[in-house]
Design brief:
The chain is α+β, with helices and mostly antiparallel strands. The protein folds into 6 domains: 1-64, no CATH class; 75-147; 156-262, Nucleic acid-binding proteins (OB fold (Dihydrolipoamide Acetyltransferase, E2P)), CATH 2.40.50.140; 279-404 and 500-562, no CATH class; 570-605, no CATH class; 614-804, no CATH class. 50% of the residues lie in helices and 13% in strands. The chain contains 26 helices and 22 strands. The strands form 5 sheets. Strands 12-11-10-9-19-20 form a 6-stranded mixed beta sheet, with no helix packed on it. Strands 13-14-15-16-17-18 form a 6-stranded mixed beta sheet. The protein has a 5-stranded mixed barrel with strand order 1-2-3-5-4. Strand 15 and strand 16 (720-724) form a beta hairpin. The chain is globular, with a radius of gyration of 32 Å.
């Protein structure tokens, strides 16, 4: 890390060398007189001179602060920030940045930094920052090349043949499998994904890892953003190697068991063996502790969370306790800490050994081995990988007699993670984990520098246990508050909600997790090979029952607070303020406090971003109209996955289902199998008339539907919206409405009448759509304006020609008259 440049000499001559002052000049009276004379001279100077003098003073003050930060070694802490910025720039770009340009910039900046040592320290710091930004971009490019996941271009029902690599149970008896695809048939997918997830309903005897299976399945591409600027699930699927999701029709057929399938390599064999061990451990725990308790315990060990019931999962979420389920820094820290402290206590029972051997390092090495074993059976999840790297670096620091809890170690772990998987920088898990860690480590550093004072509790033998209890719960309270406050804005940004009573729930649950659940769970794992784990799992289960009861009780107090989408500047402002607050030691960090308070104030009391009036899902199936906090949809039971995201992002808690019209015998009846049906002129006229009449039965801003055929709605601006389920209704819909939406993939992208037309084909490329109808011309915003990034390029693939087509250039589908 480059050193920073020393302050330049000030223009008033205070830092300039000169003749030595006589001895009496150092007296306070003479110094005060000189200072007063200098101030009078400055006050009499011209305005321009006073301005330059003020600038010089500010520059000198800033340089002094920078020098002080550099002296504390804080400059190196910004290295992962520069790398993360480079990765964000690469992932957020509309097109792939040319790799040769990124590489050339990296080499030029690195060479300039290494060989231009005579350059000013400011320039060297700029070169260093630019080099790391380019390095982050290059690592993001490399990760994308390394993944190269083939994404399914469109939904299809096909017969899949493949080998099972992962499995996970559900609370309803179903199983979710990750299948490595060998082939597809009936029809054969021209561009098949390499790996897919398939859900099998109510399977009593699950398939084993390595089994080769075949079955008919409905596959769909990974979901895109539910609304523009929301989370793109296809992004994470791309870097996880999953090209499609789906469900099986019936139970697939076992073609050959795992013993008959030759693994591709030694690493594949090791991977299957570890996954099998992980499943065996999870099954044993769930047999010992049935129900949600066993599923909870298994999730703490193997990260299998889907076996938890929806009721318990929702209660944990509303109480702010979902971080306990995920194998994150909490679990890793508790497991490593319990083993480390336990070993050191054991060694202390033998004074001779404690004096002759480096017991601290031995305990750290043992904790590192335990931590590694925990990581291997955890399923290699993103949060587990990150927590393992962070804790491993801290334990290695103990082996080399370095401080284990320090901001340098946090920065080093971030550098390692960003080097291995730069895509994590955009995920809420990475951001919230490091926000909490930075805040806790920074708080610990301040607490360590405090002035120690004795009190009556510490001097009394009778009252000292009370001091221990006070410090224990005080530590839990402070860590829960710091962790919750530091991650609040990230929860608002990514999930649009915040647990109302999370602090109370954590204060009640964390002592149970720390004292009962994790210690006895670790003992059970150590004794499992000997078959002595049962009693320890029972005690662990009792603790988890209490945690679940706490979660349900706190969730009953009122749930969480819902926030809408926030302005784009809010998150960068908060992060900048947060980094200044936690990573600096000088008075500059107070600027960070100002940024933090302003961003939190906007999130709490601001109105957020303008809310759309009309929303269309990326498949065209679900359409909603918003009025205040009410969402009126064209479906009686909208798809929860999409609709709940809309509700949180738009702060619209109420759902208004459509008015279902009675069956009209005068209207044509089209079966689901009759896709090529064309309506006669008389039938089209009858449909147009029925649509006009349906508007009279629907309230403004809500839908009236002829079930299975079409829905109509009158918008606030007087325009008419029609959604159709079959292409046969396209002509009367275009003649009647101003906006037409259909999930059918039509070759047309516009109505002859001039109405706006959104079809399954156009929505496939644009993604979800939101519309502002407050102006004369609707303002249309699409999730994708140019789907040319690796995780979105499949949207432009044409399976008939086997080529990638040109993306939609316009912001949205338009009519034939250009409106």
């Amino acid at each position: 890390m480059p050193n920073l440049e020393a302050p330049e000499q000030q223009e008033d001559g205070r830092n300039l060398p000169g003749p030595a002052e006589p001895h009496h000049a150092a007296t306070p009276f003479v110094s005060r007189a000189k200072a007063e004379q200098r101030e009078r001279t400055q006050d009499q100077a011209p305005p321009v001179a006073r301005f330059y003098l003020a600038v010089s003073r500010i520059r000198s003050f800033v340089w002094r602060l920078i020098e002080e930060e550099a002296a504390h070694g804080r400059a190196i802490l910004f290295a992962p920030i520069y790398m993360g910025l480079g990765a964000i720039f690469w992932f957020k770009a509309d097109i792939d940045p040319p790799p040769q340009t990124v590489l050339a910039a990296l080499l030029v900046l690195a060479g300039s930094f290494l060989f231009r040592r005579e350059a000013g320290r400011v320039l060297r710091h700029v070169l260093f920052a630019g080099m790391l930004v380019c390095l982050g971009m290059a690592l993001a490019q490399w990760e994308s090349w390394r993944a190269s996941t083939v994404m399914l271009d469109s939904a299809v029902t096909t017969t899949v043949t493949g080998r099972i690599e992962r499995r996970e149970s559900y609370d309803n008896g179903g199983w979710r499998y990750v299948v490595k695809v060998d082939k597809t048939e009936k029809p054969a997918i021209r561009r098949p994904p390499e790996r897919v997830t398939i859900f099998v309903r109510k399977q009593a005897e699950p398939f084993n890892l390595g089994d080769r299976i075949q079955g008919k399945a409905r596959l769909t591409p990974p979901a895109g953003p539910a609304l523009p600027d929301l989370n793109d699930f296809a992004f994470s699927s791309y870097f996880n190697g999953i090209g499609a999701n789906g469900f099986a029709f019936g139970k697939p057929t076992l073609l050959s068991p795992a013993s008959d399938v030759a693994a591709d390599s030694v690493s594949d064999k090791a991977d299957i063996w570890l996954a099998g061990l992980r499943n065996s451990i999870g099954d044993r725990i769930r047999r010992t502790l049935p129900g949600d308790t066993g599923a909870f315990a298994a999730s703490l060990v193997t990260d299998e969370r889907r076996a938890l019931s929806d009721e318990t999962t929702e209660a944990l979420r509303m109480a702010g306790l979902t971080h306990i389920i995920a194998i994150s820094g909490l679990n890793m820290a508790l497991s490593a800490g319990i083993f480390y402290i336990g070993l050191r206590y054991l060694f202390s029972l033998f004074p001779g050994m404690a004096q002759a051997w480096p017991t601290k390092k031995i305990a750290a090495f043992g904790a590192l081995v335990t931590l590694t074993a925990y990581y291997l059976i955890s399923g290699f999840g993103v949060s587990a990988e990150r927590a393992f790297i962070m804790m491993a670096i801290m334990l290695v620091a103990v082996l080399f007699d370095r401080p284990s809890i320090s901001l340098r170690n946090v920065a080093l772990s971030a550098i390692v993670i960003l080097s291995l998987s730069p895509s994590q920088v955009l995920g809420p898990s990475f951001q919230m984990s490091y926000a909490a860690t930075l805040a806790l480590v920074s708080g610990y550093t301040l607490w360590k520098r405090r002035q120690h004072r004795e009190n009556i509790l510490s001097r009394s033998r009778l009252l000292s246990p009370l001091l221990f209890v006070t410090r224990f719960f005080g530590g839990i309270l402070s860590t829960s508050f710091i962790g919750g406050a530091s991650t609040a804005i990230f929860s608002i940004e990514h999930f649009h909600r915040l647990a109302t009573y999370g602090l109370a729930a954590n204060l009640a649950a964390m002592p149970i997790v720390s004292v009962v659940v994790m210690p006895f769970g670790m003992a059970a794992m150590l004794l499992m090979p000997f078959g002595l784990d049962g009693p320890f799992w029972q005690i662990t289960g009792e603790g988890l029952e209490l945690v679940i009861a706490i979660a349900k009780t706190v969730a009953g107090w009122g749930g969480d607070i819902t926030f809408g989408r926030q302005p784009a500047w809010l998150m960068p402002t908060f992060i900048a303020g947060f980094l200044l607050m936690t990573m600096l030691r000088t008075s500059v960090r107070h600027v960070g406090l100002l940024l933090l308070l302003s961003s939190l104030g906007v999130a709490a009391f601001g109105s957020g971003v303008p809310k759309p009036d009309l929303m269309i899902s990326e498949d065209g199936v679900l359409v909603a109209l918003r009025q205040d906090d009410i969402l009126a949809t064209n479906r009686e039971r909208p798809q929860a996955f999409i609709f709940e995201q809309w509700q949180r992002a738009l702060v619209a808690s109420e759902h208004q289902p459509p008015t279902i019209l009675p069956v009209d015998s005068r209207l044509p009846q089209i079966s689901k199998t009759d896709h090529r049906r064309r309506l006669s002129v008389e039938e089209q006229g009858a449909v147009r008339k029925a649509m006009d009449e349906a508007l009279d039965q629907a309230m403004q801003g809500s839908f009236a539907c002829q079930k299975g055929a079409w829905c109509v709605a009158m918008l606030e601006n007087g325009a008419m919206l029609v959604t159709i389920e079959d292409a046969a209704y396209l002509s009367p819909a275009c003649d009647t409405a101003n906006i037409v939406v259909t999930p059918v993939r039509l070759r047309l992208d516009r109505c002859r009448s001039g109405a706006m037309l959104f079809t399954g084909a156009t929505l496939r490329q644009t993604g979800s759509i939101e519309m502002d109808l407050s102006t004369d011309k609707p303002n249309v915003v699409t999730a994708f304006e140019n789907p040319q990034r690796p995780w979105a390029r499949h949207r432009t693939y044409n399976w008939r020609t086997g080529t990638f087509g040109a993306p939609i250039v316009r912001a949205s589908p338009v009519s034939d008259n250009g409106e």
